[in-house]
Write a structure and sequence with these properties.
heterodimer; A: 4-stranded antiparallel sheet; 12 helices; B: alpha+beta; 5-stranded mixed barrel; 14% strand
């Protein structure tokens, strides 16, 4: 286990991470190769999270109040990056604790803090109940209601696009406790085994049932399960969004770079297409690097992080376009295991301009909040 | 302050003010007075990137690209006022001429301000011989004449026919060293041009955003229409992606310099195009400053490889050197 003494530098941490991966990486790689579906990937991810936490290397960058070793959030980004570029993580699974764990750790009351470590250490799984059938781009229009009862709330409504909810023990749930608009929204921390919750995985075009619908019928949630303030759910949502744009994008860019490396080595993609993808990846990475450092210094700007999101979507789509459409050996047709995986990744990249706020929403935010153009009719 | 004790912000502010306000003096005179050559010798990266960024943002131009290209050749480079031949060929040590015995035939251009006298004592550039070997050659400048360009303030010196060779540039040095130093100069020149192109894109976007806020049609500012907002937002994304990449590319590294130049050239062209569209009629006139930015972006993009030509070059480099991916680290 690494020393707790003194300020830990990114370089020192990277050396330890690489040494850890060199020791355990081949067995991780072998166990990941056994995962043939989402259940297998989740089992692998649990094993990975437990090992990282038990060995200590996964505790760096997390606050000591939840069992972490403290230090800059950049330390988490280093670990995520080194795992991602070696293809030792399933992107859409491993990013979730970053998205949900960090904001909840930052905003939770003392009563909720003890829930965080079991999540980060692979003992439990959480999901994120935000979008609704009638509240996608217009998230502040959400309608799932939480009505006050003695000692808590009773929740009724429906959520959609909830990633990996079928594996979750807890849910970070946005509900309406007040009037219309973002001021009437509260974030609740809900046990998924509460009576009245139904989870239905959605059959998706990329072949992994990662997204779910959630139905809430008179679900009772204790009053001490409010994250932050009553009516303060919007700021929880914004913090989750910020977390998504920070180390997640850095990890994702490292993973994309890993896939790109394979594309270069394959010799199947034209030089011009490789150059185009490389530029998109490097613009994303250099921008994301600046965002990481701003975040670590407490200078994160939510509005300008919309730029990161559009760069991310552009880079991801251009990479998988090159691999699938501009390659002399396309996996559009093919029987191999890697063809199936390539098709899944390509199809998932079609969602890059949609999930986490569509590119259209991002452009409107950039125009109004970064460039300062006047709000108009939508 | 950087490592050498140069206060970069102070240099930027002082030189920027001088270039902006000293209209009676050429940018070359302003830079000479500022001690450009000393700054370039002390810290080539800071000097080149700060100065070219200012040339981009002020809309002025100085004949200093040759200094950047030859900066590593030190005392061996002809002094003063060397003009370096800039090939439009994108390859790293792109020969801009052919050496045959005692003569050199140049086929590249030297991009200069329109009023610059054709009095450079020497012209220098990478050349190849009949066997394809690349070296660095010096000839005199006679016979070079200005050819007009799309940018009314800049001309391209070109020459026809063979010129007497003054020296193959290996004065006491191995040929490989001269070529290596020339390549370093090309890499820095690409980063310098990338800074200028980002500054041009930034200026164009500012003009367009200001116009979109002020221009009223159908009873409201056109910047409140989503079609205009999204076009400008996309331009902003392109600009900021290129800006971050250009700032990350500080190493004396060929792939970083290629990527910076390609991204910045592409961004400058895309952003000036978007600005042109949003500015509508006024942006098409000579009374509005946009046309200068459009033209300068188009010309600078061509130097040392355009954004279109550099893409396959980057692909080739990546294949040849699989270790070059990660110049952007936390």
């Amino acid at each position: 286990m690494s020393s707790l003494v003194g300020e830990r530098t990114v370089e020192a941490h990277r050396a330890d991470v690489v040494a850890w991966i060199e020791r355990d990486g081949s067995s991780l790689s072998a166990s990941r190769s056994l995962a043939s579906d989402l259940n297998g990937e989740m089992a692998y991810d649990r094993h990975l999270a437990r090992t990282l936490w038990a060995d200590g290397i996964g505790r760096w960058g997390w606050p000591e109040s939840i069992g972490g070793f403290g230090g800059s959030v950049l330390l988490r980004a280093v670990l995520a990056e080194e795992l991602a570029r070696r293809d030792l993580v399933h992107q859409n699974i491993r990013l979730m604790p970053e998205v949900l764990g960090a904001p909840v750790a930052a905003m939770a009351s003392d009563g909720l803090l003890p829930f965080v470590e079991p999540y980060l250490s692979g003992q439990e799984w959480w999901c994120q109940g935000f979008s609704e059938p009638g509240a996608g781009s217009d998230l502040a229009g959400l309608a799932t209601r939480a009505d006050p009862i003695a000692d808590g709330y009773v929740v009724n409504g429906q959520k959609v696009w909830t990633s990996l909810a079928q594996f979750a023990q807890r849910c970070v749930l946005l509900v309406r406790t007040g009037t219309e608009g973002h001021r009437g929204i509260t974030a609740l921390f809900v046990d998924m085994d509460s009576p009245g919750i139904t989870v239905r995985p959605i059959d998706c075009m990329h072949g992994e049932d990662e997204f779910c619908e959630l139905f809430f019928d008179d679900v009772v949630v204790p009053g001490d399960r409010v994250i932050g303030e009553v009516g303060g759910g919007w700021s929880v949502a914004m913090n989750v969004l910020a977390a998504e744009r920070a180390s997640i994008f850095w990890m994702r860019s490292a993973w994309l770079l890993g896939r790109f490396t394979a594309a270069v080595a394959s010799g199947d993609v034209s030089d011009a297409a490789l150059g185009e993808v490389y530029l998109n990846l490097m613009m994303l990475r250099s921008r994301s690097r600046e965002t990481q450092h701003a975040m670590a210094a407490g200078r994160f700007d939510a509005a300008s992080s919309s730029i990161d999101k559009v760069l991310m979507a552009t880079a991801e789509r251009s990479l998988f376009d090159a691999l699938m459409l501009h390659s002399s050996r396309s996996s559009l047709i093919g029987n191999h295991h890697q063809d199936a995986r390539a098709r899944t990744e390509f199809l998932y990249s079609r969602a890059a301009t949609i999930y986490g706020g569509t590119s259209e929403i991002q452009r409107t935010l950039i125009a109004q909040r970064v460039l300062g153009l006047p709000r108009g009719e939508r | 302050m950087n490592d050498l004790g140069i206060d970069v912000d102070a240099v930027r502010a002082a030189l920027g003010a001088a270039l902006e306000h000293a209209h009676t003096r050429s940018a070359d005179e302003v830079l000479a007075e500022f001690g450009w050559r000393d700054l370039l010798a002390a810290d080539p990266d800071i000097a080149a990137t700060v100065v070219f960024s200012l040339l981009g943002s002020t809309g002025r131009w100085a004949n200093v690209l040759g200094d950047v290209l030859t900066h590593r050749l030190g005392d061996a480079a002809p002094q003063p006022a060397v003009a370096a031949v800039v090939s439009d060929s994108p390859l790293m040590t792109a020969p801009a001429g052919i050496v045959d015995g005692d003569t050199v035939t140049w086929f590249g251009s030297v991009v200069m301000t329109r009023d610059a006298p054709c009095t450079a004592p020497a012209v220098m550039g990478a050349v190849r011989d009949a066997r394809g070997t690349v070296t660095v050659a010096v000839t005199d400048a006679t016979g070079f004449g200005p050819v007009s360009t799309i940018d009314g303030d800049l001309v391209a010196w070109q020459s026809v026919g063979p010129k007497p060779l003054i020296s193959l540039h290996d004065n006491g040095r191995a040929r490989g060293d001269a070529v290596h130093d020339w390549s370093s100069g090309v890499a820095l020149a690409r980063r310098a041009l990338a800074h200028a192109l980002v500054a041009i894109a930034d200026s164009a976007l500012t003009l367009a955003v200001d116009h979109a806020r002020d221009r009223v049609q159908f009873g409201r500012a056109i910047g409140s229409f989503q079609a205009v907002q999204h076009r400008l937002a996309e331009a902003k994304v392109t600009l900021e992606g290129a800006r971050s990449l250009v700032h990350a590319a500080t190493a004396d590294d060929s792939i970083a310099s290629l990527a910076a130049k390609a991204a910045a050239g592409g961004a400058a062209i895309a952003v000036t195009q978007a600005a042109q569209q949003v500015l509508g009629g006024i942006g098409f006139t000579g009374e509005h400053p946009l046309h200068r930015l459009v033209k300068r972006a188009l010309l600078l993009d061509q130097l040392l490889g355009s954004s279109v030509k550099l893409r396959p070059v980057i692909g080739q480099e990546l294949r040849a050197r699989p270790d070059v991916y990660r110049f952007i680290e936390l």
